[in-house]
Amino acid sequence: MHKNLIREERKAEYNKAPDFETIQKRHEEAQVELRRKKRSDHIAKRRAWLFNNRTMAQDASEETDIALEFEISQISGPLLSPELGLLNPNINPTERLLLLISFIRDWENLDLLQAGVQVLRKILSSEKGAPLEVILETGITKKLIQCMMVNNGSSLKNDAAWCITNLASGNGKIVNQLINEGAIEALTCILSTEKINPETVTMAVWALGNIAGENLESCDKVTQSGAGLLIMNIMLNWLNISNDDLSMMVWALSNLFRGQSAPSIKLVQDFLLISPQLLEKDSEKVLIATLWCFAFIAESQRIQMIMDTGIIQKIVNLCGSDKLEIRHPAVRTIGNLAANSETLTQSIINYGVLDKLETLINCRERFLKKIVLWSICNICGGTPLQAEAVARHDFMKSVISLLDDEDFEIRKEAIYILCNLTSNASCILILKNDEQSIIEKIISSLSCKDPQILMLTLNTLENLLSASKEYPANDKADNSLMSEFIDMEGLDKLENLQRHLNVHVYNKVSQILKNFFSEGEELKENQQQIINYNFW
């Protein structure tokens, strides 16, 4: 994955002792984390390939060593003139490319420009790729942007836009140069021009999607240009738009929805207005791109608008799809909805989302398992009744088993779930039958070196110990939890953590020992003194 892009830190640490009337009052206080990750879980960039069967091709975000393919056989038309020197058999492909680019930079004749840019487009579109950095250093991008703005020559416009699309699939340096040289303005101008070649419009949308997919800053610049509404206008007004073109446009919108700035209300409204039709399209690509739009919209403050569309049940059902590419954004959407609204959380529970998540919690794809656990954590961070629904579900045994998983992120999400649930006295009672397993996992987690896991584990332990004092005096549970914890050497591990270098861990351990084990420590010290006395 890769660099994490965290939209929002968890609002606060878990409470030290449960206040059952207020701890779940607002979902913002439920300690949920919204994570967005760059390019690993959603294709942020796509190259426009030369061959039609590769049009909606794979992610091109990773740089590779590229062997340039530019042979004499690729040269045609006016470029065949011996005076240009492009037919010289003694120059290598890179030298031939640089020579061609030097001509393109200087030419003003549209026929020559068309021939030259077309060859450059084919080089950039080859399956093995092209040396984007080398091409960038030539300064050709300015000329390509100018070619997109010519009044005549639709083929030149199209090939230039195609070149910009593939250049924008490169790294941040390339994208920043394109932005600084006015690529966004030129591309949006194409979108707003009437009676222009549909293929050129499609390529312009594609290029804007690539630019927006580079980083949040680039995304915001594309958003501020008004490109989103222009793309929506095309989707709403074009007749007989192909599913491939439609999926690419929805994908471009999904990149815009993931920006730092909340998408405009009108853009979200227009998109959600047609989203039911998009979900019914006979195209898996359109469906996947639409779900990613939902996932990113749900991270903004526009979540109520999703609920108003009446598509929540459809999204819940898609969590059970047999296609990973569909399940992933569907579960992400569910998790984001639950993170922001208790009303939406109740809706997705009513639609059976917990059963859908149960089928995924033990999936082989670890990244999906993390998102499933994260979504469950957000659900149990809602109202007390919503937390109880999670605690009662059969998948809790699987959650408990993951408390000592070798994957750090999975362990963290599992312990977050348990920490949320143990903040609710009713949930603790529901989990009573699994108490021994929980204590075993907690004791195991006390050996973890990571301070975050330790703090979550200590908060969970504190919640359990605090709740045990609320039981009636004649309830055997009053002492059984402490006894089990001590018998399984949990107290010894807890005492060892007093030497932990992290001040928060140290303070939490000291507080737990003082509040729950001080009498036992005095007895233990007295017994040790007697043993020592008898020995001597």
From TrEMBL:
MF terms (GO), sorted A to Z: nuclear import signal receptor activity
ARM repeat windows: 182-212
InterPro entries: ARM-like, ARM-type_fold, Arm_3, Armadillo, Importin-a_IBB, Importin-a_IBB_sf, Importin_alpha
Gene3D superfamilies named among the record's database cross-references: Importin-alpha, importin-beta-binding domain, Leucine-rich Repeat Variant
A GO BP annotation: protein import into nucleus
GO cellular component, one term: cytoplasm
PROSITE patterns: ARM_REPEAT, IBB
Keyword tags: Protein transport, Repeat, Transport
All residue ranges annotated as the IBB domain in the record: 1-63
Entry keyword Protein biosynthesis: no
Highest taxon in the source lineage: Eukaryota
Protein family: Belongs to the importin alpha family.
Name of the protein: Importin subunit alpha
Organism: Blepharisma stoltei
